[in-house]
Amino acid sequence: MFQNFRLTMAWLHTWFGLVLGFVLMVVFFFGALSVFDREIDRWAIPQSRFEPQPMPSFDKILQPVFQSMQPSKESIEQARSRVNGPMADSFPVVKRWGAYTTHRDPVLGLFAGYELPNAKDPEDGVWGNRTIDPRTGASLPDDHLKIGSQFFYPLHYSLNFHWKNLGYWIVGFAALMMLVALVSGVVMHRKIFRELFTFRPRKHTQRSALDLHNLTGVVALPFHFIFAFSGLVIFGGVYFPVTHTQLEPLHELHEKHEAFETGLPHDRAGVAGPLASVDAMVAEAQRRWAAQGMAGDVGFLAVQHVGDANAYVSVYRAGTDRIALVGNGIHFKAATGEVLREDPPLTPVASVNTFLTGLHLQHFRHWLLRWLYVLGGLSGCVCIATGFIFFVEKRKRQHAKQGVSGARWVDGFAVATVTGMVIAALSMLIANRLLPADLPARGDWEQYLFWGAWVLAFAHGLWRTAPVASARMAPAWAEQCWAIAVLGVAAVLLNWVTTGDHLLRTIGSGYWPVAGVDLAILASAVLAVLAARKLKRRAQGQLSAPGVDDSAAAHASLEAARA
Amino acid sequence: MPDALLLAAALAANVIGLGWLALSMDVHWEQVRGAEPLRRATVRTLRWLGAAGLAAALALCLAVDHASMASLVWFMALAGAALAVAFTLSWRPRALGVLVAWVPGARA
Amino acid sequence: MATSAISRWHIVSRIAAGVLGGYAFTWGFIALGIGLLFSAQMEFHDAEALGYILGFIVFLVAFLWAFSAASLRRVWLVLAGGGALMTGAAWLVQRAIL
Predict the structure, then answer these.
(1) What is the DSSP letter of A242?
(2) Is the pTM of this model over 0.90?
């Protein structure tokens, strides 16, 4: 587009980085929180604060729960436009039962799929969910929102914006632009090796911000690239639904072949059939894995064509000790318990794919690696935030002179996204502790309060970045940092007051999920205070030399103020 | 040796290895040893040492986990170590002096 | 950056070429890729997975090329035209298999 390649890459990096940076900020931050999504769930749902449990007995615990489940109201509502004629009253034909657990789950999530009568697409269905205590089979209330796994986690891949799947598309496009920003950033960065360890915090804001932007971008470059890329591959079917549209006939052909080759029936027989002891099938699966030198826990249990003569049970091994999610599936004929199929070893392509997916979705047990992932995610956030700061610093003087407000608005949106987002998350945790335990639709209220807090932070951010229009520093940043500190301490105190779980108790008894969340919140509060104080010092440095145009002179006056 | 200890050692090896690599660069050498000249032989030695440190870290990671997990741990630890080295150079550069204390200097 | 020397229309067209042209090209690449791999006896889900893995790299390269190529006309021709050609070829491959 321009005279040379480097200039074009710089243009792309600046403008696409700026616009999509706001989305990527949210993706990286809530993605980093999602590493510990289940631990955040424990914090948010005190009844689930017990030790992680293995998959319980199907015959004794799970089967009665499955039999009592029904499609959820939301699922039925969403399916209204997908049926011909009126919506059915009952959904007697159960397509699938499933239970999924990892080494970090105290409570167990169950799902059931039901045939949708009169559906436009014969393969369509509706879904039901239940969360139970696997020790007893008792169900947890549906409206206790799992803030980590049911809100922060979907927020990072869909912005919780489900209308026409637009949220997925926005995040997907942002991910592709992340890849573009990484490649263009490398092209732009002339001294990438020489400046690998360079960070000069005492220089003027524009230089420090750029140093930090380059540092966090480059040292975690493989992480940033692989996470954006693997995220795209995971949702490839959403962005390029080739095999459900243009190549649907090939897909159908394959399904028939596969059913024939594997012996796992694709369709129901239409004849009722019994369900033999699933516990015996699980025991057999574990015996077979151990015999192959890979003894393991059950990660996923599913029954297909429930109640039919063609029903089969699939038992998958949890990927606790490997990168791949679940695997080594063994499939049993539901009526008799005989083994129909053991999944063969993965093909090279499947190995690469499960490695990429498993790397992103992290069901492995490795606490150091998880914390390193959080570090990577937060580095990404710092990279994006310093990108905004650099953009504003570089332009605010010239915009002030020209009477243009571009830099001022970017700074406003930046505050709203960076600190505003943290304020929203902390507000949601506080709401979680303050709302009455038996409030109906409690989870919905928590979500409204999250978005409401963010809107307020947004408004404050836009209002209090006005000084940027005259090339001064915005007080919004420091003010929101103080808000984060206050909210963080409040959240931890409320946890203590409302549940009795204070840090001495949780650390003392080694209950790290809750202790970890409290400690992380307090650490954020400390960082916020440090940042607020540093920002105040910089602001005072600027005020002592008013109307200064020259950045070098401003730098000199900063040094003088500090001396 | 317990895994936690091996992983801690791997992290340390990454930090030390990257520290050596950083100090093989003029700008960072200067932060630690001032006006003292950086000889070419020293640069070569520091780069070899740095590579050895990183290799040792990888070996330690492999002692704890199987190959695919270990390489991920090592890669991510490298990023963390690079940040640690960079921040040390920004705020307490002299602390890295211990890594090159054995290099004879003008004072020797 | 001298964006004033480049018309707004040109910028919009480049972006459209990168996004929409890139999407069309990638769709064609994935569809043809899956068709050809499957017809070469690769397992269907493997073909799909490989299609996506290569496809997103193709999209990245196409997008970068859309902006760095000198001739915008050539960009549209290759991306939109190439995408249409590959999509058409994929139809033919599917018909041959079925």
Answers:
(1) G
(2) yes
